[in-house]
Design goal:
This protein has helices spanning about 20-30, 50-55, 70-80, 85-105, 140-155, 205-210, 230-240, 270-275, 295-300, 315-320, 330-335, 345-355, 355-370, 455-475, and strands spanning about 5-15, 35-40, 110, 120-125, 155-160, 160-170, 175-180, 185-195, 220, 250-255, 275-280, 310-315, 340-345, 400-410, 420-425, 430-435. Strands 1, 2, 5, 6, 7, 8, 15 and 16 form an eight-stranded mixed sheet that branches. Strands 9, 10, 11, 12, 13 and 14 form a six-stranded mixed sheet that branches. By secondary structure, the chain is an alpha/beta fold.
């Protein structure tokens, strides 16, 4: 590819990444009268991004986004056990209802999922109740294309198949982007720049450094295009601060998802694991199942071998908990072709799993006794019950599912303030540089890998970044 020819563009706002965060910011900035360039490496109007592949549910820590701001802040604090930056969760809580209304005004349509309070804002049309990846023509895809059309109608410039190579910097201020577009170097001079290119989950080297010693043993549960380029450029070129980078949002999946595309991103194994147990190749429990599927996914990914674990459960868990999610493992795992190990005894199940029968039997006996006597906190590792009920494994037949971790997006990223401005290590904002969506850290993650809601993080901070960039450009 030749890059001898250099073009120059002058805009008010340059945006790196055209997922929900980038498209929201671009459309809002154009509404406010700014000249905007939106850059993405994908091709065609259905370019891949995590927002397009998502379930399309707008929520904050599994709460209705129209609940009171105080209750939303509390829910996010509880979900992250105090890790989330209070200034940022207050922005999310105070702006969530307004952000959803704005998205409706841009052409997004929503449905309600019955009486489930946190599923009152589901992008329409919803994905069907079926396994595998089904995004084309579903709510998130339709919403992104509506935003793209709206942005173009506001004279916004869309630069697809364009790879950002560098940030333009003058006297510590970000003044644009340097990119390669169709073989030509393009310098986009801008009064403000937004990094909205997602997390770093597709960058195996960064995954190895921060999350998983064996990153190839972790399945990409999203679009597979987010490499953390924006975070890398902001830190190396401008000294931007980052949050803790060790956590991510993801779920437990059948290990066969590596070969069978019908087994990702759904059905997930979380409900089975949170009622039963996750054991390693020695037949011993590996983490607190009561903390939830996202926490378990993080704990397994951190292991030296993330592919050595099984989810173990009995018939009662399969019949009850296995049917309780929107796209439940029972019956969709079987329909999608997943292998389920089944035996009439724990010892026989251990043989099918290839783990020591005595150890697995001892693990199950100790677990069942702790459940029966309400002493789950005394197990090692402990088993909490405040979020997910512990169920004794006593009703055969017994099952084991070889499992893997599916990573959707990383939780750590660039530090920002309430105006979405990227910060230096001393807490001062970097002039001209903003961040939104999964490129942002300090909200989700932490020791408990707390999940707040990726779509709302993208939507709200996309709006906030655009509005503050507009104010700064007119100051």
């Amino acid at each position: 590819m030749s890059t001898d020819s250099v073009n120059t563009m002058y805009v008010d706002f340059a945006i790196m990444g055209a997922g929900l965060a980038g498209l929201t910011a671009a459309t809002r900035a154009a509404e406010l009268g700014l000249r905007v360039a939106l850059v993405d490496q994908g091709s065609g109007d259905k370019y891949p991004c995590n927002s397009r592949f998502s379930g399309g549910i707008l929520h904050l820590s599994f709460q209705n986004v129209q609940n009171s701001p105080a209750s939303l802040v509390e829910a996010m604090d509880v979900a992250t056990q105090g890790y989330a930056d209070k200034a940022l969760t207050e922005v999310l809580a105070n702006q969530s209802a307004r952000a959803v209304k704005w998205l409706q005004q841009q052409g997004a349509r929503f449905i309600r999922n019955g009486q489930i309070d946190w599923q009152q804002w589901v992008m329409a049309p919803p994905r069907p109740v079926s396994p595998g990846l089904d995004w084309n023509g579903r709510g998130p895809d339709v919403t992104l294309r509506a935003l793209l059309e709206r942005f173009r109608g506001l004279a916004g410039q869309v630069l697809l198949e364009t790879q950002v190579q560098d940030l333009l910097v003058e006297d510590g201020r970000c003044v644009g982007l340097k990119a390669v577009c169709q073989g030509r170097v393009l310098e986009i001079n801008a009064r403000a720049v937004l990094i909205a290119d997602g997390g770093f989950q597709s960058n195996l080297e960064l995954l190895r450094l921060h999350i998983a010693p064996q990153p190839k043993g972790v399945l990409q549960r999203g679009s597979g295009v987010s490499m953390g380029d924006g975070m890398r450029l902001a830190t190396t070129r401008l000294g931007a601060a980052v949050s803790d980078l060790s956590a991510f949002y993801g779920h437990l999946l059948s290990r066969e998802a590596f070969q069978n595309p019908m087994l990702w991103p759904y059905p997930q194994l979380d409900e089975l694991a949170c009622a039963g147990m996750v054991v390693d190749h020695q037949g011993q429990r590996v983490a607190d199942e009561g903390m939830g599927g996202v926490y378990l996914a993080n704990q397994v990914a951190h292991r030296d071998d993330p592919l050595e674990c099984h989810v173990v459960f009995d018939q009662s868990i399969w019949d009850v908990h296995g049917t309780q999610s929107r796209i439940p493992p029972n019956p969709h795992l079987v329909r999608a072709g997943a292998t389920m190990l089944k035996a009439d005894s724990i010892e026989a199940l251990a043989g099918l799993m290839g783990v020591p029968a005595n150890t697995l039997s001892d693990t199950v006996v100790a677990y069942n006794e702790a459940v029966a006597h309400g002493q789950c906190e005394q197990l090692n590792p402990k088993r909490s019950t405040s979020k997910h009920q512990a169920v004794a494994l006593v009703n055969g037949p017994f099952y084991a599912l070889p499992m893997c971790v599916g990573i959707t997006h990383t939780a750590g990223g660039l530090r920002i303030d309430a105006a979405a401005r990227v910060l230096l290590g001393n807490g001062a904002p970097i002039e001209g540089l903003y961040a939104a969506g999964a490129a942002v850290g300090g909200i989700e993650g932490g020791p408990m890998a707390g999940y707040v809601g990726g779509l709302m993080k993208a939507l709200v901070f996309g709006l906030v970044a655009a509005e503050n960039a507009n104010d700064a450009s007119r100051a």
